[in-house]
Amino acid sequence: MSSIPEINPDELQKCLDENTNLTIIDVREDEEVAQGVIPTAKHIPLGNIPEAVSNLDPDKEYVMVCRSGRRSMNASEYLKGNGFEHVKNLEGGMLSWNGELVF
Length: 103
What we know:
17% strand; 103 residues; Oxidized Rhodanese, domain 1
């Protein structure tokens, strides 16, 4: 079992509503992202995470997102293994997200 904490969609929506200082990273592929992303989310496909790590601040808080939560959990574990302590995974991924989408 993973040691990565999960955040549910309602909790993430509350963080967005309160302008909590967190960065959402969507690790889905381009064609998936074209169907909509959570507002403020950065798109970094899962395969690009290893090269993108050097551009991320390990002291910031991140919420990782994919379609169902599995790929984003892998990305979360990768970040944690590279010194990122404040990483959460969106429980259920975009399949569980009922909030606003941007295209």
